[in-house]
Amino acid sequence: MKIKMWAVALCLLFPFAGQAGINDMIQNYNPGGKLTFSADRGKELWTKKTVSSEDGKERECTTCHNKDMTKSGKHAKSGKVIDPMAMTVNKDRFNDPKKIEKWFTRNCKWTYGQECTNQEKGDLLTYLSSF
User: Mean pLDDT in each 10-residue stretch from start to end of the chain (131 residues)?
Assistant: First the structure.
């Protein structure tokens, strides 16, 4: 009986693990509390097209991540499958702050040619948390 109660408790708590992680990261990008994050600005950034100085090809976040956040994507260079971004189908997506920062660093440089600001990271996470 005790095992069943623990299993039920874990099942009830687990879906919110990703949301807690993403909310913590959003707070981390706003240490002074002066920034206001927007899902609309995050969406604009997510779909912003840029041209790479490396290969002259057009890029946006959906180049590698699928336009449908509930579906897997495919890395443009390596062809490696990328798990869905939506927390509704990939509850582990935003649980690890180190991974979130790692991917922001790499993907912002690759997609936009520069690191994202805290404002941009907060806007993107706010947008991504809606899926």
Answer: 43 45 88 94 95 89 92 92 92 87 93 94 93 89
- Residue entry with tokens 């994507």: 73
Tokens of 53: 């100085």
Q: What is the DSSP string of 62-112?
A: GGTS-SSTTS-EE-TTT--EE--S-TTT-TTTTS-HHHHHHHHHHHHHHHH
Name which of 39, 15, 37, 38 is nearest 28 in CA terms: 37
In one-letter notation, the amino acid at residue 101 is E
Contact 123, 39 (CB under 8 A): yes
pLDDT given for residue 16 in this prediction: 42
Whole-angstrom distance, CA of residue 58 vs CA of residue 111: 9
Q: Tell me, what's the pLDDT at 101?
A: 92
